[in-house]
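User: Is it possible to get a 3D structure for a protein together with its bound compound? The compound here is flavin mononucleotide. I've pasted both below.
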Amino acid sequence: MNSRTLILYSSVDGQTLKISNKLRDQLLETNQNVELYSIDDFKEDVTNYDKVIIGASIRYGIHNKKVIAFINTNIKQLDAVKTVFFSVNLVARKPEKNTPKTNPYVIKFFKTIDWTPTNVEVFAGMLDYKKYPFFDRIMIQFIMWMTKGPTNSNAKIEYTNWDKVKALGIQINNM
Ligand SMILES: Cc1cc2nc3c(=O)[nH]c(=O)nc-3n(C[C@H](O)[C@H](O)[C@H](O)COP(=O)(O)O)c2cc1C
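Assistant: Yes, that's possible. Here is the predicted structure of the complex:
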């Protein structure tokens, strides 16, 4: 029987959605049944699926509160199936902060939540100053200046390592 896989995402500027779509396309190649929803739209029971993948981006140091609320509400159900959590943020562009054990947001996330997914991953996101409203642009430029990243307001850089995304897809296939 084909396994059913659910991908739930929380994305503001679209990078977490892009990664989720990539994973979905890869999983579809092996004939799995894959469904993708924004965390805002999902109303079913997660135990209707064999594997549940949750992806969320970081804004000002935190993952979307709706993701945390969803996990807390569904913790028993999530523990009954195979699960993956992945985080998307710009700190992960740094090699020394791009694993679940070294990324500060992932470390903090799992200190505040009583959930242990089967697998955890972290991906570097997208920097696109032109997309950001004035206040956000100034803030991100400041964060980038502090962390020795690009501050030119034309900068548009996709830091996501797509080989790493593919590797997660393979792991999900083998779960
Ligand atoms: C307003 C704003 C705040 C952000 N805050 C952080 C942050 O605190 N730490 C970080 O590493 N990245 C931060 N980022 C970078 C995002 O995590 C990155 O752009 C990611 O690709 C966004 O994914 P999304 O498009 O799926 O929301 C921020 C981006 C924006 C626009």
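The chain is about 35% helix and 25% strand. Strands lie at 4-10, 33-38, 51-59, 62-63, 82-89, 119-124, 126-128, 156-158.
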